[in-house]
């Protein structure tokens, strides 16, 4: 006798699939390794990316004269390239030359006086050894010679100072440079050694600074003196990191020194490839 009851529903068997086991050594709180690997690769790509940069002057400095006087000549113009030690400007030298001449004359006189005092001291010492001269005579001769020596040394120092002042009355290039601006003209009075007026502005003629901005993560991967590649004017050149300075926006300013090549100019776009 057949039953009219509907057949019992088929219940699917439990799945035999198991959840993936954690990596060996991982704890129960460990996160999947794939996102970490992705982030590491992404960070590596960021560090290796080409950074946009701009060429700027290297060694830019405003030159002035450290002594007071009247500017007599300025022998350079903006855009001119000069060699290290080349004369750029000079004060009127009369007072400085007179100081040197005066100190030299005093030095000649005191040299003779010191020689005379030394001969007198030698004579008194000989007489004293023969018990002919008194102790007071020996003391007086010794004092006279000491004073002559002191005066001679002071005058030698004054002569060196006068020569130095004469030397500093001339402004010379501190390195091979390009003149950026001529700011002083003949007749300008330099009055204060503490805040003297700028005469010329210069920058290095043999190199540029490629300037770029880094994120903190990128800055952690580089150091002063590191060699990096710089692409400029269609050419790849080697440079070294000259400066790393914090900026107000939280980024880091990067300066890379590169040799100055023909066809490059200040403000030109460049790119820096970090190591």
Comma- or semicolon-separated keywords:
275 residues; Elongation Factor Tu (Ef-tu), domain 3; Helix Hairpins; six-stranded antiparallel β-barrel; four-stranded antiparallel sheet; 14 strands; elongated
Tell me the strand percentage band.
25-35%
Walk across the major sheet and give the strand order: 1-10-13-12-11-14
Distinct helical segment count: 4
Termini separation comes to 88 Å
The count of β-strands is: 14
What's the name of the CATH homologous superfamily of one domain? Efflux pump adaptor protein, beta barrel domain
Mean pLDDT value? 85
Largest sheet report:
6 strands, antiparallel, barrel
Unreliable segments of 5+ consecutive residues: 9-47
H/E series: HEEEEEHHEEEEEHEEEE
Structural class: alpha+beta
Shape: elongated
Q: According to CATH, what is the class of one domain?
A: Mainly Beta
In the CATH hierarchy, the third-tier topology of one domain is known as: Elongation Factor Tu (Ef-tu), domain 3
Percent helix among the residues?
25-40%
Q: What radius of gyration results from the CA coordinates?
A: 40 Å
CATH architecture of one domain: Beta Barrel
Describe the structure.
The protein is of the alpha+beta class and 275 residues long. The strands form three sheets. A six-stranded antiparallel barrel has the order 1-10-13-12-11-14. It has a four-stranded antiparallel β-sheet with strand order 2-9-7-4, with no helix packed on it. Strands 6-5-3-8 form a four-stranded antiparallel β-sheet. Helices cover 33% and strands 29% of the residues.
